[in-house]
Amino acid sequence: MKTLWVYAHPDPRSLNGALRDHGVAVLREHGHDVRESDLYAMDWDPVVRHDDFGCDPDSRLDVLTESQRALENGTLRADIRAEHDKLRWADTLVVQFPLWWFGMPAILKGWFDRLFVQGFAQGVLDPTTGRARRYGDGGLTGKRAMVITTVGANAATTGPRGIHGELDEVLFPLTHGTLWYPGMTVVPPFVVTSALAMTDDEYNETAKRLTERLLTLPDTPPIPFRRQNGGDYDDHLVLRDEHARGETGIGIHNT
Ligand SMILES: Cc1cc2nc3c(=O)[nH]c(=O)nc-3n(C[C@H](O)[C@H](O)[C@H](O)COP(=O)(O)O)c2cc1C
């Protein structure tokens, strides 16, 4: 594998830091290439600005249009171009973070905001149909993605009837809306619950579990999200009545 490991935690001495060091070492020991984006260590700027696209700061900014123009002209800001090169190189993307307010830390959200510009990840058209390639097909087709996240809450309260909502559903905006949308194959997330107070034994067990997940990543069955252009959705991109009949909500987008 050629893995880009994107990591968002302010302190390398954290649980996340330990799991990142462990995971990267395991991959390298098994002959895989790993490149890293340690967003805090890089002092990554998470904010989209006129300057990303070389636009006059006093002009009205149409982010989608200007980002595509700058992508095509090779004039995106240098830090975005450097991350694009890493992502083009990778066949596997690992995205690791502590769950903060039911989502990614802002620095990581801003990595996606600034990188996944129109024409690169999304807004890529099928030349024959003119239809947007999305959800299972797009600018990042051919790459695999896995989310690693640590969560303060326990397994029961993040389970199917837990008060925090089921974690697969909490992560849906990332797994489905951000990774599957531009065409990546997304495997089930690696989740560490009860992450606030972990014994040494629990850490060792978690590290072992992570080793297994990383070494089986190329063959792990993906989350069975439905493809936009696979026939399950009608021309208005609404799921046809014959699928998940009478059901609504996030779960209907899995086959
Ligand atoms: C700003 C912030 C927001 C958090 N939000 C959540 C949350 O929404 N759900 C949850 O279960 N834990 C939440 N936590 C707990 C973190 O997930 C937990 O501290 C982290 O996973 C532990 O890993 P670390 O030691 O590597 O930081 C939050 C923590 C912080 C600091």
Folded structure, characterized:
The model has no long low-confidence stretch (mean pLDDT 97). Strand 1 (2-7), helix 1 (15-29) and strand 2 (33-38) form a beta-alpha-beta unit. This protein has 2 domains: 2-223, Flavodoxin domain (Rossmann fold); 224-255, no CATH class. The protein is α/β, with parallel strands linked by helices. The protein has helices at 15-29, 63-73, 78-89, 106-115, 167-170, 172-180, 200-215; strands at 2-7, 33-38, 92-98, 124-125, 132-133, 144-150, 185-186, 190-192. Bound molecules: flavin mononucleotide (FMN). Residues 9, 14-16, 98-102, 150-153, 195-196 line the site of flavin mononucleotide.
Secondary structure blueprint with pairings:
Blueprint lengths: L1 E6 L7 H15 L3 E6 L24 H11 L4 H12 L2 E7 L7 H10 L8 E2 L6 E2 L10 E7 L16 H4 L1 H9 L4 E2 L3 E3 L7 H16 L40
Parallel strand pairs: 1-2, 1-3, 3-6, 6-7, 6-8
Antiparallel strand pairs: 4-5
Helix pairs in contact: 1-7
The structure holds flavin mononucleotide (FMN).
Primary descriptors:
single chain; 255 residues; alpha/beta; Rossmann fold; 2 domains; six-stranded parallel beta sheet; 14% strand; globular; binds flavin mononucleotide
